[in-house]
Design a protein that fits this description.
mainly alpha; 3 helices
Length: about 100
C-alpha cells in the first residue's frame, strides 16, 4: 500500500484549471470531481513508493539468501550420496574380483 497522500480538492482544482486553459470549459465540476476521485483511487492502489520498493528489495535479498542456503544443503546431500554409491560400487567390484 502506498503512503502517498493525494488531496482530492487539489486534484479537482487542477482539473478545473486544465479544463479552462484555453478559455473553454472541458469539464463540469461534477466531471472534475469524478475524475479526481478516480485518479486518487488509481494512485492510492497502484503507485509504488520508495518505501514499497525498499521493502520489496529486502524481501528479495532474504529470499536469495534462503535459496543459496538450500542450494548448498542440496549440493552437500548429492555429494554424500555420490560418495556413498562410489564406495558401494567399489566394494561390489572388489568382491566380484575376489570371487572370479
Amino acid at each position: 500500500m502506498s503512503l502517498l497522500f493525494v488531496d482530492q480538492d487539489i486534484l479537482i482544482l487542477h482539473l478545473k484549471q486544465l479544463s479552462s486553459f484555453w478559455g473553454v470549459l472541458y469539464f463540469t465540476e461534477k466531471q472534475a470531481e469524478v475524475q479526481a476521485k478516480t485518479l486518487k483511487r488509481i494512485i492510492d492502489s497502484n503507485l509504488a513508493t520508495k518505501q514499497d520498493i525498499l521493502m520489496l528489495q529486502k524481501d528479495i535479498a532474504e529470499t536469495k539468501g534462503d535459496l543459496q542456503k538450500e542450494i548448498a544443503e542440496t549440493k552437500a546431500g548429492i555429494i554424500k550420496w555420490v560418495a556413498g554409491m562410489l564406495l558401494a560400487q567399489s566394494a561390489v567390484v572388489a568382491t566380484l574380483v575376489k570371487l572370479l
